[in-house]
Amino acid sequence: MEIRPILSALRHNLTGALLIATQVALTLAIISNSASVIRERLAVSQRDSGVDAESRILTQRPILFSQIDLANLIQTDLDALRAIPGVESVTVTNQVPMGRSGWSSTFATERVPTAPNQSAGLYFDGGRLLETFGLKLVEGRGFRDDEIVNIDPKVQNPPPTGVLLTRRLAEALFPGQSQFVGRVFYQGNTPDSEELRVIGVIERFTTPWAQTGPGNEYAVVFPARYLNPFNHYVVRAAPGAEAQVRKAMEEALEKNEPGRVSNGQYSIQEMRDRRYRGERALAWLLVSVTVFLLGVTASGIVGMASLWVNLRRKQIGVRRALGATRGDIVRYFLTENLIITSAGIAVGVLAAWGLNGVLMSELSVPRLPLDYLLSGVLLMLLLGVVAVLGPALRAAKLSPALATRSV
Fold first, then answer.
1. Looking at the domain assignment, is residue 290 inside a domain?
2. What residues does the ABC3 transporter permease C-terminal domain cover (predicted)?
3. The pairing of beta strand 137-140 with beta strand 194-202
4. Is 237 among the domain residues?
5. Domain hosting residue 116, numbered range
């Protein structure tokens, strides 16, 4: 089939062709970047937190406003929670993964203000934190019971020196190393920063904020019960016992100290759902935008092709009278649409890279993968073929007799 007559026809319908090409370009740029963002956001929301059986890890944060012996109350609470049928393990800590608020500190390998430092979540292990959360040690050991100390914020306490840290943080603090137990680092990078020694390395433990970057797994665990009235009690329920443990947990804490106000009771799975609600909402919004744009583009192609069929009824009739087959008519419209779509795709590829550059600099979106862009190109080509096929088939059904009646 000759391309020249098609190009000549397009020059006479340049406005419509430009509109369709622009639609294709914008749609390609947006949907390819949207698909990349959707993948990235869903991957973030499905990251492994390091916590085993998240739905069975229950946490409650009773807040106390009166003065009381906190060390004794915490121990009494832990004993009461351990006695609940269906409870496998109990701990008390200052924060929980994906809880969206918590403590952090900076850590460095030198007591020098200019030394590189890493910000990390700061957890307190009030006893059996590893077992309760189901965390996996990849090197060293956990804390012994006699290493757990009480830290009273009202008095000066010598901080524990032996700590656990996550593998990601260890690799950031000691790049190029593979063994970390026994290594020394500091809480801060000033001359008076406290010295800490690694006694164990946790494979993975998400921070309360669950950041999107590598800092998501930067955490340090101290062997301590921090004596303040805002601690989190965490229990691991046996499979199938979650509901009864929830109720018994609330009743036990209420019985031990009726003056406390509960700040809610959640499983770690529920914490995950709350933390990543925004990521999932954004993903679904982008899915909706993608479907909408594809629908608009397809409708535009169908509408423009149908208009051109109506405007060219005489031309089609003449071609059929001169021997053009139905297949020739269909190929004509498919080729015409392919030219327009290809022009739009060429511009759309450049627009996609440009849009991705803006998103990378402004929103820290990852670079657009080439396979996503290629998939977008193939999708737009397929969309163009499918959208124009209906009008093309209708054009092919026009009778050659139309030309003799109209000319």
1. yes
2. 288-400
3. antiparallel
4. yes
5. 65-259
Same domain, 317 and 397: yes
241 and 285 inside one domain = no
Does residue 252 share a domain with residue 312? no
CA 359-219-278 angle, 5° bins: 40
Inside any domain, residue 244: yes
> Which residues does 11 contact at the CB level (< 8 Å), separation at least 6?
none
In a domain, 271, yes or no: no
Q: Please indicate, yes or no, whether residues 236 and 286 belong to a single structural domain of this protein.
A: no
pLDDT-based confidence at residue 336 (cuts at 50, 70, 90): confident
DSSP character at residue 378: H
Considering the domain architecture, whether residues 98 and 216 belong to the same structural domain is answered as yes
Contact 42, 368 (CB under 8 A): no
Closest CA relative to residue 47, chosen from 213, 169, 234: 213
- Encode pLDDT of 102-131 as tens digits: 999 999 999 999 999 999 999 999 999 999
pLDDT digits 0-9 by tens, 237-264: 999 999 999 999 999 999 999 888 888 8
Which pLDDT score is estimated for 394? Answer: 80
Establish how many alpha carbons lie within 13 A of residue 107's alpha carbon, considering only the half-sphere containing its beta carbon: 26
Residue 299 shares a structural domain with residue 228: no
In this predicted structure, what is the pLDDT of residue 407?
46
330: amino acid identity, one letter: V
The tally of domains found in the chain comes to: 2
Where are any strands of DSSP class E within 51-193? 57-63, 87-93, 104-108, 117-124, 137-140, 149-151, 162-166, 184-187
What is the Cα–Cα distance from 402 to 346, expressed in whole angstroms?
38
What tokens were used for 293?
Answer: 């744009």
Whether the CB-CB separation of 323 and 332 falls below 8 Å is answered with no
